[in-house]
Write a structure and sequence with these properties.
single chain; 303 residues; mainly alpha; two-stranded antiparallel sheet; two-stranded antiparallel ribbon; 46% helix; 8% strand; globular
């Protein structure tokens, strides 16, 4: 004799959850309204880690149960009322009045720019890939308006790089909408902001000491050496090629910086292995390209 199970059969049409609404709400520093905080569920095979790209971007293998997931879209939040967006922690930190006023004055401009690139985005529903990309663009525009004390340049660098990744994902998910075009723009912006981060830090214009995670992705923190590496990589891959003399000078400076990473990495067990491997490959590529630049004077060799 068999007993009937009291457990109801699984509904094959039921949508499997990837995220949940946190019990703790987030307060917007601009409009002073609370809004729901969406976070990703991480167990149950939702995140099957795949390869790491040369841009230190972790790819995830789609599962038969959950399909394709995009974990980075949950790392930022956006106020559904005034469309201010930040990394979650910064909603609590940004309090100075000039930054808040600048963000408030720019509200309509933010909405217009984002709607033109990511139309029909929605900040109130469970986010999809397009909503996540829209939130990142809102964050890029929001960090433009805040004080340098919050290290916005590095954050804009990370956000621009992630936006390039998300646009690439959108181009694959919904081909025909030309998301490869903004992808190129965001790579160019990432290149600029990573370079500017290093210039601001070394020039004591803007410190990044208060940033707890340098990313660039959410799975591992590659620290300041990761910033140096990415600045070199993005210049190599996406830097301008109209003025080759300027390009070679920048690549030579990046090669010297990468060489310093090697020197530190050999004596430090704390440095992430993948960063050293990628940095070595980049160093070799820079060396190869700079063979064409023998006639250019780069100044004194300080290695």
């Amino acid at each position: 004799m068999y007993r009937k199970s009291s457990k109801p059969a699984a509904d094959p049409n039921k949508k499997l959850k990837i995220s949940y609404w946190s019990k703790t709400k987030c307060r917007c520093p601009v409009c002073q309204r609370d809004f729901e905080k969406e976070e990703m569920l991480t167990g149950g095979g939702r995140m099957n880690a795949g390869e790491l790209t040369d841009e230190l971007h972790r790819l995830y293998i789609p599962s038969g149960k959950y399909g394709v997931v995009y974990p980075i879209i949950y790392a930022v939040g956006a106020c559904p009322r005034c469309h201010v967006a930040f990394f979650w922690k910064d909603f609590e930190l940004i309090k100075d009045q000039p930054s808040i006023e600048a963000l408030r004055d720019d509200e309509e401009n933010r909405k217009k720019i984002v709607a033109n690139i990511f139309p029909h985005y929605d900040l109130k529903r469970e986010r999809n890939l397009l909503d996540g990309a829209a939130m990142y663009l809102l964050a890029l525009l929001s960090y433009e308006k805040i004080d340098l004390g919050y290290a916005p340049t590095l954050k804009r660098a990370m956000i621009s790089l992630r936006l390039a990744w998300l646009c690439s994902d959108l181009n694959k998910a919904i081909p025909g909408y030309n998301y490869n075009y903004p992808e190129k723009i965001f790579y160019s912006k990432a290149n600029f902001f990573y370079e500017q981060t290093l210039l601001n830090e070394t020039g004591r214009i803007e410190t990044i000491a208060g940033v707890s995670n340098f990313g660039p992705d959410i799975d591992k923190n590659y620290g300041y050496d990761g910033v140096i590496y990415l600045s070199g990589l993005l210049e190599y891959k996406y830097g301008q090629t109209d003025d080759m003399q300027m390009r070679y000078k920048k690549l030579d400076a990046n090669k010297r910086a990468i060489a310093r990473i090697f020197g530190l990495g050999k004596s430090s067990k704390a440095k992430p292995g993948p960063l050293l491997e990628n940095a070595r490959e980049l160093y070799d590529k820079l060396t190869e390209e700079l063979k064409n630049a023998n006639s250019i004077d780069f100044g004194d060799d300080d290695e």
